[in-house]
Amino acid sequence: MAAALVAGCTSEDSEKASPTTEGGSGASAKKGVATAVSGDTRPPLNPADNGRLFAADAPWNRTAAELGRSEKYQDYVENFLHMGNRGALDDPAWRGRFSTYFSEYSVPIYPLSDATQEIPVWTAGFGYPGNLTDGALAPWNPAWEPAGGNDQMLMVADPETGRWWSLWLVQKVNWTGCLTIENLAKGYTPGSGICVGGGNLATAIDGSVADYRSSSGVLGGRGMGLEKLEMVVTVDEVELGSIRHALAMNVYNPMFGPECSAEERDSPAAGSTCGFFVSPAERVEFASGGTENCGPNTIEPTVENRERTIPHGMRFAVDMSDADIESWLDSRGYTGAFRRTAKIFATAMRDYGFVIAETTCWDAGIEVDGSENPQTRQRWEDLGVPVGEDAAQQLLWGLVTEDNLYVVKPTPIPGRDLRD
Predict the structure, then answer these.
(1) Residue pair 365/12 in contact by the 8 Å Cβ criterion
(2) Which of 16, 44, 72, 381 has a CA 20 to 30 Å removed from the CA of 107?
């Protein structure tokens, strides 16, 4: 689902002070226990592989050390630091900062077992139809809520089969976007079903229904051309004590088109007069020009601005020792369960890094298992995360610096061509 409205389109309060650094009061879950906590009924999404989703050979599930450093693209570190979020353009203190999306712009995941019905899915006139449209049925529960923010995303997952459904721009109340001549001609009744910007039952490259327990990669979905579930941090993983994959990073300055030709990709034009992506991404999100729908924050599609952007799919990691991570935790004043959770995220940023995945209109940030699922919210709070407070959103502030950030060599989904 291409982004008609992109993550982070509302400006964050860029003048907020540093977060309160004392961790939450909830007790952390026992390491190695993937069962539900605090009365949660959602079964583990993947009881195998320590909670990690997708196959071991999925590009994001391979370590940064295994893939190696990219000297070719190291200059893009500066672009991330200086323009990854809109605030960094005006205030050097914002360089390298990014949010952790536990609520707005998160990815709430609901278990199929909680569905109470199947509901017809209709695509709004402003949307991008997926394979769930024109009244196709999807599992549903009226109590489910999408994430806050402009994306209004939710997912339904079936741990028994590895299937998952993605619904984007979920319009639970305002269904007028689906009141189109095309939908009416196909049988839409105003106010019936669920109106969305796009809906998909994830399918593999060969067209079969995808299985997040074993797939090496699924195309479609988010800005970089892969499905949204790929690289999302789940509460299951953090309860188990490790995040063993790269994280999805949304940035203000993804590279835009026009897309480079094959000849231009290996010339000085790449990243200057034309845009490109690198593996595992599958596309330039805005192939025809600059980012869209960001109002006054829209980046003008000039050569100068393109040279300050970052290709979709580019992976970064931080060069930090265990002692460095402990020192950063101390500098933040983190204690208790919140410190343990922050350390798990920081270790993943070192061992696996993050991949440029989507576009925002202000902030930079990583997406996690969303707290709009009240059971998931309780589990995050038991892990010390003060959901809804600045301290949660600012969990990883100060971790990324000019001295420790580097670019990882691109690698494709197995069976796909390398774009390097």
Answers:
(1) no
(2) 16
Model confidence at 50, pLDDT cuts 50, 70, 90, reads: confident
CA distance 18 to 8: 20
Q: Strand 163-168 to strand 198-201: parallel, antiparallel, or no bridges (unpaired)?
A: antiparallel
Listed residue (70, 61, 93, 101) closest to 316, CA to CA = 70
Global confidence as pTM = 0.89
Amino acid in position 396:
L
Q: State pLDDT tens for residues 167-222.
A: 999 999 999 999 999 999 999 999 899 999 999 999 998 889 999 999 999 998 78
**What's the mean pLDDT in 225-230?**
95
Secondary structure (3-state) at 292: coil
Determine the length of the chain. 420
What residue ranges do the domains of the chain occupy? 51-107+229-419, 109-215
Q: How far apart are CA 87 and CA 25, in angstroms?
A: 32
State both tokens at 92: 């050097």
pLDDT over threshold 80, residue 281: yes
* Helix, strand, coil share of the chain (percent; to 5): 20, 20, 60
For residue 281, the 8-state DSSP code is -
**312-328: pLDDT as tens digits:** 999 999 999 999 999 99
Widest distance between CA atoms in the chain: 63
Report the Cα–Cα distance between both ends of the chain, in Å, rounded: 24
User: Is the CB of residue 382 less than 8 Å from the CB of residue 29?
Assistant: yes
Please state, in angstroms and rounded to a whole number, the distance separating the CA atoms of residues 271 and 265.
Answer: 8
Q: Tell me if 207 sits within 8 A of 222, measured CB to CB.
A: no
Q: Which two tokens stand for residue 14?
A: 């860029």
Spatial neighbors of 30 by CB under 8 A, at least 6 apart, are none
pLDDT at 290: 74
Burial of 60 (0-12, 13-18, 19+ CB in 10 A): buried
Query: For residue 226, what are the β-bridge partners?
Result: 219
Distance CA 6, CA 293 (A): 8
pLDDT at site 288: 82
Q: Would you say the C-alpha torsion 196, 202, 205, 208 has a positive or negative sign?
A: negative
Helices (H) and strands (E) in the chain, counts: 10, 13
